[in-house]
Amino acid sequence: MARAATTADVFNAIAEPRRRDIINLLSDGTEHAVGDVVDRLQIPQPAVSKHLGVLRKVGIVSVTKQGPLRLYRLNAQELKPVHDWVKEFERFWTHQLDRIKERAERKMREQLTKAKEKEQ
Amino acid sequence: MARAATTADVFNAIAEPRRRDIINLLSDGTEHAVGDVVDRLQIPQPAVSKHLGVLRKVGIVSVTKQGPLRLYRLNAQELKPVHDWVKEFERFWTHQLDRIKERAERKMREQLTKAKEKEQ
DNA sequence: TTGACATATTCCGATATGGGAATATAATAA
DNA sequence: TTATTATATTCCCATATCGGAATATGTCAA
After folding, report:
1. Which residues, including other chains, have CB under 8 Å from residue B48's CB and lie 6 or more apart?
2. Chain B contacts of A96, Cβ < 8 Å?
């Protein structure tokens, strides 16, 4: 077997930087025509259409037709599995911050102690 | 150009389900030998070595040698970029929950109102 | 119908993949 | 040294990729 298809799941779909760019652009919650994405991200139109096709296949975006335009909108909740998975690791860098904070506080207490000692 | 290498960045590296499984296994913070991963995840040893190689290349895991064993440990902070990116979309499902909560609360207030009306 | 515009699709080529099987390498013990 | 155990690497294959270029499709207006 080869590498999983980009349309296999959300994790594969968002591996592409340009697709994340597109998602970011759509994250304002409004509908965007393909040409809009092309203009704003400076990506050739066929590439945009293809990327949107991948995102649509995994449900991250949905389309509605309006005349000759195709309006894409974000279905952000499809990203929740990614969030849920990576959230488990939040503690690793949060705790790191805690440790930094603790060290800073200890230092401050030490400073206070020193100052008090001087007073006497 | 073809699809980006799995070692191109964290997003590509974690697209593989088995690699996420390995990351999950290592998330206890302790060191694990390759054979341990093989036993627990029931993945052939060469596959595990290859996946760990990808994860090492992007910095998600690091190795130390201990006799014939290679002990792998997680560098979870490397997952922060993923967390940071996807966190932006948290509001989409959080707000959804808020709406559900609001509806539930409104319903409860209505119930209370009805009960009061009955009292009189 | 014809033309103009918006978008999708197809074809191409270069590339990397992940799995399996076999094999190589490394460390240690007997 | 040799055997054993742990792990990494190599080779092969089927497959899917993304980008670019060209082209097809669809919608509307004149």
Report:
1. B22, B34, B37, B38, B41
2. 77
3-class SS of residue B15: coil
Structure confidence by residue, pLDDT tens digits, A38-81: 999 999 999 999 999 999 999 999 999 999 999 999 999 999 99
DSSP for B27-75 reads TTSS-EEHHHHHHHHT--HHHHHHHHHHHHHTTSEEEEEETTEEEEEE-
- Tell me the pLDDT tens digit for each residue of B46-67: 999 999 999 999 999 999 999 9
Contacts of A3 (CB under 8 A, 6+ apart): B3, B6, B16
> CA A88, CA A103: separation in Å to the nearest integer?
25
Q: What is residue A10's predicted lDDT score, i.e. its pLDDT?
A: 98
Per-residue pLDDT, B104: 56
On chain A, the residues whose CB falls within 8 A of the CB of B88 are 24, 27
Q: 């191109």: which residue's tokens?
A: B8
Rounded to whole angstroms, the Cα distance separating B67 from B62 reads 16
- Distance in Å from C4's C1' to B7's CA comes to 45
